[in-house]
Amino acid sequence: MPTVADLVAALESIAPTRYAESWDNVGLLVGDPAQDLTRVMLTIDYTPAVACEAAGEKCDAVIAYHPPIFKPLLSRVTASGASAAVFDAIRRGVAIYSPHTALDVAEGGTNDVLADALGLAERWPLKVSEDKPSQYKLVTFVPETSLEKVSAAIFAAGAGRIGHYSACSFRTAGTGTFFGEAGSDPTVGKSGQFERVPEVKIETVVPTARVDAVVNALRAAHPYEEPAFDLNVLGAAPEGHGIGRIGDLPAPTERQAVFERIKRELELPHLLIAGPTSGSITRAAVCAGACGDLLDQAIGGGAQLYLTGEMRHHDALKAANAGLTVVCTLHSNSERATLKRLAAMLSGRLPELPMILSRKDRDPFEIL
Predict the structure, then answer these.
(1) What's the CATH code, domain 133-236?
(2) What sign has the CA pseudo-torsion 292, 295, 296, 301?
(3) What pTM value is reported for the model?
(4) Which SS3 state, helix, strand or coil, does residue 182 take?
(5) What is the pLDDT of residues 106-139, one digit of tens each?
(6) Is 100 annotated as a binding residue?
């Protein structure tokens, strides 16, 4: 039977969390990696309605595109208020995983789904990611008696994943030394004397997005007052990796035909449009969610149409004045189509694990 760890590994292979934006909160947010799974629900937002639906479908894991634990919206989990659904998931043993911007950047992910909806033949990132570490190597030193406890904690927090493998590490036995000065309270040995302790050096990889979680888990599980550890940069994001997409259509296409194609491909009855609504286009840009901050890249890249979820009033005016057609679907409507593709990719990796698309998940806004 597949486990939460198997699901996490599959999602990591599709949308590596190390490529998520630094402000994001991606990966396994709730759950026990060792827990067995029988059914998974996919949704954009983990709302009370979706939580109730998942319970009725007997799903023991939920993939919520938007992280339900995310500052400043949610910094604590209690039985009431905004965190009630997450609290209930923890109580019932339901795992929650969020891919968010990792899926936006991933090949075949959220923005490629939008690019496919437009029929872009050639495409490239609208904004190339800055060179940043994609992962780190964590090196720490643990007394032999605490080796498995500390290892399990850092692996559960996201360390040790390489491709389709989890809990990857290299371990070397050795001797640690210390002298406990006045005020110290060593876990082993005595304060005021030089000590030698059998220890094991653990080396493992940590995705950039999970560094804080792994270090916190290390500190919590390690028996020492001040555990020693190193974090070494291993590499940067690959060239050409980035957010959004811009590209060319196979042939000049009338805007009205593009509008109809978007509605058909994304299964939407309405679109919000600013700027020109007639004439043909040859180049378009896409970015899921709220992407007004990439408007200059779309204009500078020669796009004649920009498909996104939502945009501020003044950005829409700027686009229209530049002759750029902006097509807004409402925020989550620009992301929801990717769930079907993600479910298919996961089914290919975990064929024995049923994937269910939420029927209660919808954008909070409705056009009447």
Answers:
(1) 3.30.70.120
(2) positive
(3) 0.73
(4) coil
(5) 999 999 999 999 999 889 999 877 655 667 899 9
(6) no
